[in-house]
Write a structure and sequence with these properties.
With 725 residues, this protein is of the alpha/beta class. The chain contains 22 helices and 34 strands. The strands form nine sheets. The protein has a seven-stranded parallel beta sheet with strand order 11-12-10-13-14-9-15, sandwiched between helices. Bound molecules: adenosine-5'-diphosphate (ADP) and zinc ion (ZN) (2 copies). This is Replication restart protein PriA.
């Protein structure tokens, strides 16, 4: 008797056994089963002869959804690896790996396509009768020669022309099963390809030498050094062999400009996957890629799960970017999964960045990855000079020192754009009473409320709760309430007053909500409609602003003294990426950093010696301190209304691991953000010198944790290779 083991969306680290009804489903197909009172959709994961359960009590599968597997052997391998490495329930992993439409049971087969063809009267129709309707004329003329899909005709000739001809019964709408079309290979035309410079050529040929095998490359190139050009030229021979390319980009980096570069170079359709798509759109790209109908797929984090018929190359752009790590549920790192995938599919992988993650750099320095370096800017652009500006004892206007305002003025007068970076949204990070010093706090998070003047409210940036701006102090009833510190909103107002002849644009998650809004903003900057760009993190990510010659960073002092050991690395990446926004075209650029601590060794090292030097030094420090990448970590987090529950739970977890002499436990200690949304948060960090040691211990204990007395009373999670503390 065949036992069908199914990955169901149930938070348990196991498969669930069922019996076949009459037909045995194939491994990798979706099936519908009853689970308790519910009907669930799961994926057949294994077929065995034996079960750990009483065979007589096993239920039968109710329906087989797919005739052909939606998970091929590689996809299954990746899911199994994820479940095993991240100690995550397999059913939940499988869900994450599927487009939402498939989770809901939609057909995995492409939908039929609507075509337009001529009717009998259309075939004999005298075209000259349509001389006054040119669109209808050309459409009918075209249909005389070729068949068109309805959507293509709507796009090329307009919906009304199509409708008019349908109404006149000159054409008809026929639905045909989707024809798998893999002809892109014949359509490739290479256009706009520059001669690679020496460094690029070396990088390209290194990748080309390994196209038929697994190999991992770190493409370590300063901003503007032509990394994208290296991708393009490395992709070319892959596509010409008819193999597919998957490119991951950070969420915010996926702009029409990026996509256009790939589309234009090869003249073929590019599949795009990001969080702004509808479920149907996502499913279509998934289907086309699986069927080999797309040569190139570009997408954000979860695009790493996109199946490919004939995979040839994987690229992770801006590999250091934090958006590749999922921060809830299945806490996977898409870059790390890309390495596993490339290995499973036997293809090369390029990790590109100007600021490699220390883990990645270490892999390159120890020879695990091939280290390709681009140290010159491509084309005519020169590298921006970097400076610190000492603001101790300096009066600041809306957060900016006079010396820096003068600099801004100079650059504006030369017709350039300037970019100001500040990592705080809103008007001011706090509202303080001048009489008694009271600061309005969010009680659920114990953090000051941010003042948002434009929204007329105080908002907590940790839990989102908001309330009207008070007129009086809560403690002493004084009405002298002052904004403390500077946020993007205040900066914008200040700069508007100070430079009335120049236009400002503020780009942060308040103003740039939604993808198309950000695209519009980026376009208006490139059209020089604005001269002063104010923004948060969003601005640092890979956008091209050829006319920006001055980048000014206003407030990083907080990050210099963070308790999180990754803060220094992230800050160095941020500063370097921001500096990379200046002087990308012919004009030379400069970056200035305002600070109260101009002698800080991190800043000095970064400014004088660059990211590469900083990173090597930071690695040395990590080694001395026994931190990753020289050790391996797993972080248990627990939260509860009562801090004691969270603490006791993690204490019990720590006891489970006390038997492993080479697993070191730190905690339980309060999380960096101790209270959030009314919940107290604690954490327990496990660390080991070897990955396998930590994996082994976790593998043995993770199911025990489920049975702990408090496991159902606290919300807890396990984060392997945590990035955030
Ligand atoms: P990165 O991805 O490293 O930031 P890009 O690939 O975007 O760099 O290149 C920066 C600029 O230099 C782009 O405008 C690109 O078209 C141009 N460029 C890149 N390589 C070359 C080359 N070999 N010759 C001329 N221009 C180049
Ligand atoms: Zn007061
Ligand atoms: Zn809050």
């Amino acid at each position: 008797m065949s036992i069908i083991s199914i990955a169901l969306p149930i938070p348990k680290r196991q498969l669930f056994d069922y019996l076949a009804a009459d037909e045995i489903p194939k491994i990798g197909c979706r099936v519908r089963v009853s689970f308790g009172p519910r009907k669930l959709i799961g994926v057949v994961w294994e077929i065995n002869q034996e079960s750990d359960w009483d065979k007589n009590k096993l239920k039968k599968i109710e329906q087989i959804i797919d005739a052909q597997p939606i998970f091929d052997a590689t996809q299954r391998k990746l899911c199994s690896w994820l479940a095993q490495y991240y100690k995550h329930p397999i059913g939940d992993v499988v869900q994450s790996a599927m487009p939402v439409a498939l989770r809901k049971g939609e057909s995995s087969e492409a939908k039929p396509t609507n075509y337009l063809t001529l009717t009998d009267s259309g075939k004999t129709f005298d075209l000259s009768n349509l001389s006054r309707a040119p669109k209808q004329y050309s459409l009918l003329e075209k249909l005389n020669k070729v068949e068109l899909t309805k959507s293509q005709a709507n796009q090329d000739f307009g919906i009304s022309a199509v409708k008019a001809l349908l109404d006149k019964e000159l054409i008809q709408d026929v639905s045909k099963p989707h024809q798998i079309n893999t002809s892109w290979q014949q359509q490739i035309v290479v256009q706009g390809k520059p001669q690679a410079n020496v460094e690029q050529a070396l990088a390209i040929s290194s990748v080309e030498a390994k196209l038929a095998e697994f190999a991992c490359f770190l493409l370590d190139g300063i901003t503007g050094s032509g990394k994208t050009e290296v991708y393009l030229q490395a992709i070319e021979p892959v596509l010409k062999q008819g193999k597919q390319v998957l490119i991951l980009v950070p969420e915010i980096g996926l702009t029409p400009q990026t996509v256009h570069r790939f589309k234009y170079r090869f003249g073929i359709d590019v599949g795009i996957l990001h969080s702004g798509l509808t479920n149907t759109e996502r499913l279509q790209v998934w289907q086309k890629s699986k069927n080999g109908e797309l040569g190139i797929v570009i997408g954000t984090r979860s695009a790493i799960f996109t199946p490919m018929l004939n995979p040839g190359l994987l690229i992770v752009d801006e590999e250091h970017d934090a958006s590749y790590k999922q921060q809830d549920g299945l806490r996977y790192h898409a870059r790390d999964l890309a390495v596993v995938r490339a290995h499973a599919e036997n293809t090369p992988l390029i990790l590109g960045t100007a600021t490699p993650a220390l883990e990645t750099l270490n892999n390159a320095l120890t020879g695990k990855y091939h280290h390709l370096q681009l140290q010159q800017r491509a084309g005519k652009a020169s590298v921006a000079t970097k400076h610190v500006f000492d603001i101790r004892q300096q009066p600041l206007q809306f957060g900016i020192a006079q010396g820096m305002l003068d600099r801004i003025q100079q650059h504006l007068e030369q017709g350039s754009q300037v970019m100001l970076f500040i990592n705080r949204r809103g008007y001011a990070p706090a509202l303080m009473c001048h009489q008694c010093g009271h600061v309005e706090h969010c009680h659920r998070c114990d953090k000051p409320f941010t003042l948002h003047n434009q929204l007329y409210k105080l908002q907590c940036h940790h839990c989102g709760s908001a309330k009207p701006i008070p007129q009086q102090c809560n403690q002493c009833q004084s009405n002298e309430l002052n904004a403390m510190g500077v946020g993007t909103e205040q900066l914008e107002i200040g700069l508007n007053k100070y430079f009335p002849n120049y236009s400002n644009i503020r780009i942060d998650s308040d103003s740039a909500r939604g993808k198309s809004k950000l695209d519009t903003m980026l376009n208006s900057i490139n059209n020089n409609e604005h001269q002063i760009l104010i923004g948060t993190q969003i601005l640092s990510k890979g956008h091209h602003f050829p006319n920006v010659t001055l980048v000014l960073i206003l407030d990083i002092d907080g990050a210099l003294f963070s308790a999180d050991y990754r803060a220094a690395e992230n800050l160095a990446q941020l500063i370097t990426q921001l500096a990379g926004r200046a002087g990308r075209a012919e004009k030379p650029g400069e970056m200035w950093l305002q600070t109260h601590d101009p002698g800080h060794p991190l800043l000095q090292d970064l400014i004088n010696n660059g990211y590469g030097h900083f990173a090597q030094y930071a690695l040395l420090e990590r080694k001395t301190a026994n931190l990753p990448p020289y050790t391996y970590q797993a972080l248990f987090k627990a939260q509860a209304l009562n801090p004691k529950d969270a603490h006791t739970f993690l204490q019990n977890v720590a006891e489970l691991f006390s038997q492993y002499s080479d697993v070191w436990c730190l905690g339980p200690i309060p999380a960096l953000m101790e209270k959030r949304q009314g919940q107290y948060r604690m954490q327990l960090l496990l660390q080991a010198k070897q990955r396998s040691v930590l994996q082994h211990a976790l593998g043995q204990q993770v199911n025990q944790i489920e049975t702990l007395f408090l496991a159902n009373k606290v919300r807890w999670s396990l984060d392997i290779d945590p990035q955030d503390f």
